[in-house]
Specification:
185 residues, mainly alpha
């Protein structure tokens, strides 16, 4: 019986994943390009790369923006008009793109970040590649990562595990972690 239930759940998950339409997601992504760049490769350190991000994480964040649980006016406005299919298709499209290339960073800062990264890798994947609802950090913009870590630390951005994890980090730790993750492939 347990095997039947497991197989049924896995089949449901597989069918749900296959339901996303990458081509429709690419068409819908035109509105995203102003900030997140063509195919999700941001040219501005203010906005994150979406390319290579996990589909689960992108769906989760778009739903949070749509519901207002996560506040950022431009994203709340855009997400408000997205259907469930739009969210799935956008997430599938960006997840299908190659991961961003690592950024050049100060070697000493990267080494310091590497020495502090173990606490992050349990959730974000052994190579910071992202895992399920935990985002890809590898290759992300250092300035964006630093801004988000500081927002978690101040409580401006909510996320219980993250708010607790960053509480003990200094600004230097945050800068080092951001440099390290942006330098990863």
């Amino acid at each position: 019986m347990k095997k039947f239930i497991f197989t049924s759940v896995m089949l449901f998950v597989a069918l749900t994943v296959q339901a996303a339409d990458i081509t429709a997601g690419k068409k819908k992504s035109v509105v995203c390009q102003g900030c997140h760049g063509a195919n999700g490769f941001s040219q501005n350190s203010t906005w994150p790369n979406l390319a290579g991000q996990t589909a689960s994480y992108l769906q989760w964040q778009l739903k949070k923006f749509k519901s207002g649980e996560r506040q950022y006016a431009p994203m709340n406005t855009i997400a408000a008009d997205l259907s469930e299919a739009d969210i799935e298709n956008l997430a599938a499209f960006f997840a299908s793109q190659p991961a961003p290339k690592p950024a050049a960073a100060d070697a000493k800062l990267v080494e310091l970040g590497k020495s502090k990264a173990a606490m992050c890798l349990g959730c974000h994947g052994g190579k910071a590649e992202g895992r399920g609802q935990f985002p890809r950090l590898a290759g992300q913009k250092a300035a964006y990562l630093e801004k988000q870590l500081k927002a978690f630390k101040s409580g401006e951005r909510k996320g219980r595990p993250m708010n607790a994890m960053v509480n003990s980090l200094s600004n230097e730790d945050i800068k080092a972690l951001s440099a390290f993750f942006s330098s990863l492939k």
